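Hi C.,

You asked whether I'd gotten around to modeling the 333-residue construct. I have! Everything is below, sequence then structure, no commentary in between.
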Amino acid sequence: MSTAEVTDLYMRTMQYSWDAYPYPSKTIEDLDMDKIERFANRINEKGRLRISGTPVEIISKMNLVKDGNPTNGAMLLFAKTPLMYDIHAGRLKTSDVILDDRIIRNTLYEAVEETMKYIMSHLKVSYKISSETVVQTTQRSEIFEYPLEALRELVLNSIIHRQYDNVGDIKIKIFDNRITIFNPGKLYGDLTIEDLKTDYYQSSARNKLVVEAFFLTGDIEKYGTGFHRVRNAISKYPSMKFKYREIQNGFLTELSYEETSTDNTVDNTVDKTNEEKILDAIRVNPGITQQKLVEITGLTRRGVEWNMQKLKVESVIRRVGGKKHGHWEILSD
């Protein structure tokens, strides 16, 4: 039995939760009061609990303060300076060829949104236009490469249930036809892989206060329905598969799919890749800077540079003039 497994067993036996312990050498002054107020507003908007008071009173009611000092959970959720529990996300062509990567370090609610934004920036988007739509309206519907509700559920699961006394990072790898998410910490309590295959498993919370917080804001349910919702979401994607397993000292989930052809006689889909986002931006503003492309596409500067270089090598674009006063020209238009 590993040290992490021994720690988990001890805490379950004593009915402790790691996030309920005081965080060493930190005080209330290390918490961001604005984040706590936004948290309280979200709770009240959801309506599962009515909560009021000063920021310190609010987190005290949530048991996120112990002996006048913030707990591990409070620091994870509301620290002014986010703790070093990183999410390492990247876009890969193969296991050895990394096209783009990013280290996300933030408090938990913000980390969820930042992670989803990064993942979405690397997804292909299709615009579905049916024959009926063409006749009746100019509207079109967006279809993401993966169901966003499934991805969000898996991101939430990894952030909320990770083992925070394990120094490893959450690792998200985005390949051409699959996404994997690894989080430190195996399944908690008596939960098994076989249980997760059913729609009626009973979940166990490693981080009880964090789970409570995300439940009250309406981001999760407490009833072990997360994987059920993932299965429901991918049911609309016929070729998509959902796999999960325990590996080493953690848990790995994977969404993957097979490429399928599109019937162009009735429904048409047009993929919106990162390259196309860049080309669209250049059409609007030929003098656009790389920093502006970073903001538009959600890629890192390295990711923008890689895509721009690829477009130049393929003779899709060229640079006219110098860096300061030049502009981009699209050769294919």
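If it helps when you're writing up: Residues 6-15, 131-138, 261-271 have pLDDT under 50 and may be disordered.

Thanks,
B.
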